[in-house]
Each structure stands twice: as structure tokens, then as C-alpha cells.
Amino acid sequence: MENVAQKVDVHELVSTGGDGQQFLTFMLAGEEYGVDILRVQEIKGWDNVTKIPNTPDYIRGVINLRGTIVPIIDMRLRFGLNFLEYGQTTVVIVLKVNSNSGKSRIMGIIVDGVSDVYNIAKEEMKAAPDFGTAVDTKFVSSMSTVNDKMVILLDIDHMCNSAELSTIDAITE
Amino acid sequence: MSVDMSQFLATFYEESFEGLEIMESELLNLDIGAADSETINTIFRAAHSIKGGSGTFGLTAVASFTHVMETMLDEMRDGRREVSQEAVTILLSAVDVLSEMLTALRDEQPLNHDAIGKAQQDLDSLMAAGNGSADTSVETKTESMPNDSQNITGWKIKFTPHTDMFKCGNDPVRMIRELDGLGDIKVDVDVAKLPELNKLIPEDSYLSWNISLNSPISEHDVREVFAWVEDECDLVISPVTGSGGNNSPELQVDVLESSFNLLAPQGEKLVARFYEELFSRYPQVVPLFKNTTPEKQQIKLLTALKLVVNNLRNPDTLVKALTEMGLRHQEYGAEAGHYDAVASTLIDVMQELAGDKWTTEIETAWKDALTVIAKVMLDSYVPDGQNVATPGMVATAPVGTPQVQVKTAEKRKSGGEASSIRVSIDKVDELINTVGELVITQSMLGQFGEVEDLNNSHLEKMRDGLAQLERNTRELQEAVMRIRMLPISFAFQRFPRLVHDLSAQLGKKVELKMSGEHTELDKTVMEKIGDPLVHLVRNSMDHGIEKPENRVDANKHETGVVHLNAYHQGGNIVIEIIDDGAGLNTEKILAKAKSLGLVTDSENMTEEQIHDLIFNPGFSTADEVSDVSGRGVGMDVVRRNIRSLGGTVDVKSVQGEGSTFTIRLPLTLAILDGQLVRVGSETYIIPLVSIVESVQLDEGKINIVSGRGEVYKLRDEFIPIVRLYHIFSIPFDMNDDERGLLVVVEADGEKIALFVDELLGQQQVVIKSLETNFKKVEGLSGATILGDGTVALILDVKGLFDLNAKVATRPEFVFRSNSEEAGDKGGGNSGVAA
Amino acid sequence: MATILAVDDSASMRQMVTFTLKGAGYEVVEASDGQEALEKAKGQQFNLVISDVNMPVMDGITLIKELRALEEYKFTPMLMLTTESGDDKKTQGKTAGATGWIVKPFNPDQLLATIKKVLD
Cβ of B335 and C97 within 8 Å? Predict the structure, then answer.
């Protein structure tokens, strides 16, 4: 495929002219995923979490982020992949998630590692096929190709809102 | 210079509402027939301030409404009017109406003219009916317009100040200077009375003056100049008549006529432009034009201008017309400053439209003319209160239509809630001091950061410094918390009125006692506690206190007492609502609970537990649902609201004697005294206020109750055990030999025992919300950040109780530590499987 | 520039008066009742005193009387702010030694014009 996306230095976030978007990409079980860079608040290493009782296993717990309580979600477990022990290279991407009511929350997602920041033009965002990704396609907003690699662009709001904010019967999970 | 009055409005509203509260509470305090003069004075001053301020800040409706109230109160304080029950009642409802008016004006909502009109009527009739001198008559000025029949061109004034004029801070020079500003003057001083220099007392006035003033103004205006010194001087004023000519020699009639004819074709444009400019330069006059339309107003102006110009040669007609116009203008609140604004704007607009045909001569002619016109109109103004045909007009004349356009829904409706707080200077000073000490401690500790090799003496000093830091931080925390604290009297103050009105409504005699009003609590908590308090008081009055006859039958005084009490206890504020009424009827409550299906087995229920049932939804044992309370939706909401503030509400009652509702609230919302506990590898925090006691677990005392899980026999009580690692699904950490601890906690009269592995320390924690970024988790009331930066969860006792009820009876939650228990499984776990 | 003592128990009134006078270049000191005003007047010389009549603790008329008894204020201009339409308050004020009065409600321009008259 034509390589239209350009690689951009993380430290030079130039505003995108035209109708492209910038994405931060990360690795998860060999696949590369991207999230809107404007939603990324920060990237940090793995730290201890405090478990919250009666929550699904992919919600690992909460951490103290400079005085605010932030929930941490393990993406592997979220999508039914094998659990990977946390280590030095484990990364937590802190995201700003918007809910339907307009409220915004801060949440952290645990990923295998951070990749890069890419500028992806709108034309290069293709619809996701119904199969082939670990992630439930309803969380995928589109797909693109960068440097001959497939990048799966995620709909953060949908993904973080669907399960976490719905009331789960804590006992029956 | 034009000052924008709206910047002072916020303060004015605030102090007016305070004033109204004072008026209300003092009116309620008045002893009918033996009214205390200081009390009346206080009420008068409050009304007086509101009237003065509202007039000054342009709220004419309020000013005129308050005027009659003020007059009535003035008469009362002078003893000229009786303080009757009727008067007090009318004044009280006037206070209500005034409060509504101010709220509506502040929030830019329409006024309730019906209510205002009615209250106004009541006040007026009372004033009229009352003591003879009910009118606010003022001596009428003897002259109010230029003497047009004699062609007066000026005045001769003999001004003789009395010897002690200076002692009032007056100086004859000022009067003379002022006269000079009114026209041409010639002054001759008369030194006849001046004594020898050695006999001269510098503080006395010996001089007099003969002044000739060339000016078309009225005698009234001349006297005005000397208004302040009327009683301290001799003043003789005689007119000087000129020869022929116009009443106003300065008016350049020809120039005015020709310039106006020049502009006449653009007449409509002129007036339209005029208003455009006027409103843009002087937005504060916009309200004056509220009861008319732009078209109407422009036509009026144009007509007026034509009238003036056409009658320049008919001074009589002109003056009469201007006088009438003046009176009308006074009605809609036009003041001297406005005339200047109009004049300058009009001239500018005329100049604009005349273009290069405008000359200095034309400008001067119009300037003079408008000055004279303004003067005549202002002279026509009558003293406050007299410019009305009927009383009704006073309230409505300036305000014809609702004051401002309806704003969009986003406009905040109630400005009442918390956006500012009054803090006493002492608290602020304390804060400043504490921060100062903190800074010192910090710099002291900072020094150690520089030291290369820390030795023991350094460490010693560091430890001291850290201890100091801890003290400073705690002091700072307390000082800051205190800033948000206000005495509960703010919440209590609505109750005298409430009880007064409600007792009348219910036909009961109730006396309200209040104590501990100075007890302080957090501002936000106080705002939210208002409604629950009201409900509880209403409840006491409606269901608690009996009718007078019933009370007498029960050997009680016919007047019941509702007592509001507040005090600090531990880290909480306790508010009690105590009544000496009929108390709770245990049987009725039980019956109702059973009929609602809330209770199946009532054998083991204590009376307290039965009483606590009233806090369930849908509960009301009232025989009829009265308007006041009794719809059965109250108590559960009260409890829920109080709980959301982190507090509790309980009831203790003795049938026939009365009931006491006790509300306990944390002193601030965000800080909690907590007991840290370890469960497995997790640390949790239990609010100290919920902890009853802690005991070492003695397995022998554990019993299994079918359908309810484990209970622990503590002395003579059976308390359900809640194993956190079960309901929280935490890996079980203990082996058989270790004993855990039971922390007995309480919520809403119920006790449960929490099984924990270890008690850690106690500390104050700052409550952080879980819901901000996550969601509400049952059993947790929030989280906190410990000293080491990790997050610890705060347990919610009531939530745990509910959770346990769901979990405890499930068969898989078997207890591994005690084989005896395991053997007992059969009996214990025949409960309902999930 | 002259220093003025403004006395009124209404905070909004004080604010407005202070704002207006300061805007015209005068120095202003506020007091919320006659007693406070008297203390301040004793501590500092004012060129003019403007005072409301109805105030708690000490009313305006008493204040003027007290001030006139002080040597430094024998001839200082003192103006009463009053909404009283009756003449008795004005008379009382004059008897106590007031220079003159300003009738409430007044607008800032009227206030300034009157002040200018007495502050030569």
C-alpha cells in the first residue's frame, strides 16, 4: 500500500495541517494500536495499584496520580489475551476519556510498550474488517498502514466507557 | 463622570437580604403592646437602608415599596403609631414581598406585581386608617417656577450670616460662588458690623453682602443656594424686573428656529439616532424607558422638540408644557444627571445630522436652550412621595412592564448558593500566621538538603524539624477548615418564622427553643442540612406535638416545645431536634412495617430498631396525609441526604413523652478520622466515627444462623460477621492458627463485625472520590492517599452491611479455619442459594 | 488632595460613595457607625465628613455633635446623608452643627457637585 503516513518525532508535535490526526501507537500482543494523541495525558511506568473489590479482572485497581484516583485497565485482559507479567518495560498510558454525558475521566491502560507518534491523514483511515483483530471491532474506529505495518486505531471513549461505567453486578461476575 | 452603579448591586443585595432577615426576626421578637424601642429602631434602620440603597442604585420599585414601610416604622419608633398585631403581620408579609422583589431583581426575573400590589395596598390602608398623620406630607415649596408675568431678569439679595455661621462648617464664600455660577453677579460687602481688630473674634462672622444677580432663575433657586444656612442668616431677596423682551434673553430664538427647520426633514432619523446614542453612551438610563416602545418614545421626543421650538415666542405656554413634562419625567425617575446626558447627546446628534451646516452659534443656542429647559423641568419636580395621583401608581409607575427580558435557561436562577463566604479577619490572620510558621519550618528543613554528611546531630535536628512540620501542617489544615466554618445559626434562623407560621396553620401552640447556635460547621454542609432540618422540625410539629386540648388531657402544658440544639462531639457536629410531643407509636410502626413487607420476624427487634423503621421509603403512619408532612416520602430522603453528607440520623423516642432526632455530621466533608486495617495484603480505612469497639476473634463465639450467615456473640448481642476477603474477593491470607480481629462498626442502629487481619495506625485522611474517574463501588465510600503515596480504600459501613446481606448466605463462602464450623455446614448453609 | 470620612452602616452605600470620591481624586476613609467614625476622626484629620443619619451604636446627628466639640473639627464641613423627607431631621442636624445635607437617593454626580461646593 501506499505509504502516506509520515513519522513524526514525539518531541515535535506540529499541528496537523489538512485533515489528518496524530496518533500515539502502542504494542499489544504483537499488534500495533493507535490512540488520538490529544487524548494522551501522559505515559508512565508501571507502579503498584490498589485493588478495587468486586471488579472485573481487567480493572487492576487504582493509582494515585498526583492526588487524583485513577483506575488502571489491563488491555490484554480486557481483550481476552494472555496476561503478561508487569516489568520494567511495562507502560501505562494515561488517557482522557469522554463519556456520553460530556463528563471526562482520566484512566490508565497497561500496554506492552509504546511505539511512536504518527500523522495519519483521513484518507488513510480505512474501515476495519469484521475479523482479524483481538480487539472487539466495535472499539475500533478505523485502520491504517504505516511503514507497511497495520495500525489499528481505537475509539477510546467507546472502549473505556462501555464496560467500566456500566453497572456490573459485582457478585455475579 | 458617570459611575456604573451595577458594581455595587451585589453588595447591596447581600446586605438587603441580611437586613430583611433582621427585620423578620425582630418583628417576630416584638412584644405586641410593649414593643421595645431599640427593636423597632433596628427594624426601622434595616428598612431605611434598603430604601436608601435601592433609590441610589436605581431600583425605584423597591424604593417606593419600602417607603411606606419605613414611614410606618418611623412613626412606631417615635411612639406616634401603635405596634399592633395587625401591623406586625402586614409588615411581615411586606418583608416577604420585598424579599421576593429583591430576589427577582437580582436574578433578572419578572416581578410579581400582584403580590406587590396587594402588599402595597395593605400597607397603604393601614397607614391611612392608622394614626391621623398618616400621610407623608412635606411642606410644599412656595414657588416652583419662574415668575413669568413680570419679566424678571434678576434678583437683589441681601445676605447677612449670623455670627456663628462658621461653626457649622459653612462659609459665605461658597454661597456667593454658587450664585456666581448661576449668572452674572455684582457683590458689595458691608463691613458695618466689623469690630476693631483687637475685639475681633476670628470664628465669628460679621460681614454681610449685597449681591445683584443677573439670571432668569426662580426665587426658589436662589433660596436653594442658601438652603443649608437658612436658619443661620438673614436673607432678603427681591426681584429685578427687566425691560421687555423674552423671559429668557439668552435664548437665540431665531437661531433655534432656523436650525430646527434645517433638521426637521430628518426629524425621525434625528430622534432614532438620538436614542441609539443615548443608550450606548448611558446604558444606565435604559431602564427608565422600559414602559414604552422605541417608536412611541421617538415620536414623543420629536413632538416635544417641535413643541418647544414652536413656543419659543410664547413663554407661558412653553413653561407650562415643560413643567408638565418635567413632572412626568420625575415619575419615571429622570434625574438631573440624565438631563445633562440628554442635552449633550441631542446636540451631538443634531450636529451629526446637520453636517457642515452646523455652526458654533447654533451649538451655543441649543446648549443654552436645553439648559433652560432642563432647569424648568427640574424645577417642576415635587418632593418625594407627592408626585402621584393614586397610591397604586407609586409602586407601578416606574416599572410598568417586567424589568428585563427573560434570559435563557442557562441563566442561574438562584443566586443564593455559595459563591462567596464572609470570613472574620481573625481567621484570616490565623491562617497567615500559620503559613508563616510553615515557611520557617520549611526553610529550616531545607538547609539539611545542603549538608554533605549527615551526622546524628543533624538527624536529631531534622527529626525536630519534621515534628514541627507535622504541627504546622496540622494547624494549617485546621485553620483552613475553620474558614469554611460558619455558625449553625445561619441554618437555624429560618425556624422562628417557620414555627410561627406552622403553628398557626396547624392550630397548635408550639414554642421554639434554640441552643448552640454558635456551633460552627462547614458552609457546604450547612447549606445542605437546611432542608432535612426543616423536614424534621415540620415532622415534630405535625406528628409529634399534639393539639392543645390533647396535651392538656395528657397533663402536659398546652404549648409544646420544639428544641433545636447543636454541639460539637469528637470530630462531629451533633444537631438534635427534640420535641415533647406524643412520641413514636411502636405498635403502629410495626404494623405499618409489616404491611409494607419490611419486617417479617419482629421478635428480636428492639424498640430502637422498630423506631428506625420510619426511615424507610413509603413510611408514614399519619392517619391523614397532611399538607405539611406525612406523604411518607420524607424520612428516607432525609436520611439519604444526611448520609450523602457523611452523617447519620437516628431517633430516640418515648411514647407519650416525646422524640429526639439526632443528626451527626462530620465537621468537614473531605477529611475523615480513620482506622487503618490490613486485610490480606490490602489496607483499608474504617471511619473512626463508625467504630464501636475491636475484639480479638474467639472462634468459640462464632455461630451460624440459617439465612443470615455467621454471627458473633459479643456479651449479650449477636453481631453478624462480615469477612471482607469474602465480599471483596481478596485472597485469604491467614492460616488456621492465627486469629484475626473483629472490628465492630455501626450504621443506622445496626452493628456488624468486620473481620480484619491486623489493626494498623489511626490517622486523618483526605477523602478522594472514586467516582471522579471510576465509579461508585458498593462498600466503599472513597479512597485516600497514604503517606507513602499508595492508595487505600475507605470502607462504607452501611454499604458493607448491604453487601454482606447479599453475600453471606451463599454456600461457597465456607469458613475454612474451623473444622467445627465446617461440620456445622448442614445447618448453617441451608439458606437461600444465590 | 482632601481626605473625606464617609460614614454609613450600609456597605453598598459606602462602596459607592468611596468609589465615586476616589474616582474624583479624593482620599476616603470609611466607618460603619458613628462610634467608629469618631475614633477615626480623633486619629486623623479629615477635611470633610459625610455621614448617614440612621446608624447603630451612634447615629449621625450625635456624631456631628461629638465632632463639633473637638477643636480640630469646629469648622470642618459635615454633610448628612438623609432620606428623611421631614424637616425635623434636617433641623436636628443643623442644631447639632451639620453644615448641610444631601438627600438620598442621590447620584454620584450630585454627590461630587455638593462635595466640590464645600471643599474649597
Answer: no
